[in-house]
Amino acid sequence: MSDFPETDVLLDGAVRAARAAGDHALRNRDRRNEVEETFAHDVKLTLDLEAQEQAFGVIHERFPNDAVLGEEGRMDYDRSRPCWIVDPIDGTVNFAHGMPLWCSSVAVEIQGRVVAGCVYLPEMKECYTATIDRPAECNGRRIRPSSVPALEEALILTGLSKHVVDGSPAFDVFKALSLRARKVRIMGAAAVDICHVACGRAEGYVETGIYLWDIAAAGLIARQAGARTEVLQELGDFKMRYLCTNGILHEDLRRIMEESIP
Ligand code: LIP
Prior knowledge:
Blueprint: H1 7-27, E1 35-39, E2 42-45, H2 46-62, E3 67-70, E4 73-75, E5 83-90, H3 92-96, E6 103-110, E7 113-121, E8 126-131, E9 134-138, E10 141-142, E11 155-158, H4 169-180, E12 183-186, H5 190-198, E13 204-211, H6 212-225, E14 228-236, E15 239-245, H7 250-260
Parallel strand pairs: 3-5, 11-12, 11-13
Antiparallel strand pairs: 1-2, 3-4, 5-6, 6-7, 7-8, 8-9, 9-10, 13-15, 14-15
Helix pairs in contact: 1-2, 4-7, 5-6
Bound molecules: L-MYO-inositol-1-phosphate.
L-MYO-inositol-1-phosphate binds next to strand 5 and strand 13.
């Protein structure tokens, strides 16, 4: 018996909200170059804001008393009531360039625990889901991490934060991983990367400077698939150093992270 009897209702809400956001962005991708703000290593699109409002609309209609926390603002985050955590377009720069690896991510957290989540990839036609009391699925089929036993055989995913500067520890981590793993890739969307670990396409994901909304839904999906997740360090303002693995390689990857970061 789940501690959260309504997990099926919560998951349905997360899926509807993620699809509302992702399908809005997909339908309007010819407007993907409408920019609200540009940064050295990131961009905020008009569609980021619109897609978030699509997700919030679904959430407020079905769960009017719950809190929401979104990448694009609305930080009425409090743990005294259920909180919906939304990244309307994760992989924004990929989306802006017309690359298909992006997603909409919606999770709901109750008493500090994510209990349901959905990561929806409109252009890849993949929808990852999980609740705290049910296994993770992609398009309704059970997913599991890989059983690759050694880093030398592994594909590891990582990312460079929008705050990257010369001397960022991420470069040291990237070098250390690249010298040990079969391959290291930067795909540009954390939630997609974590779902790739959850379904066995990659053996690990590491990133420094990633946000709660990037990992909330995908982290639950990974855990419910049988992968392992760990917040290695809280960095404030919802930022963190994060690790997700197939479990077998967790200690190796954690050690490389710790040895590479002063
Ligand atoms: C992105 C993350 C990615 C990170 C990028 C960016 P966004 O999120 O998913 O892992 O490396 O810098 O933060 O901004 O596209 O939602």
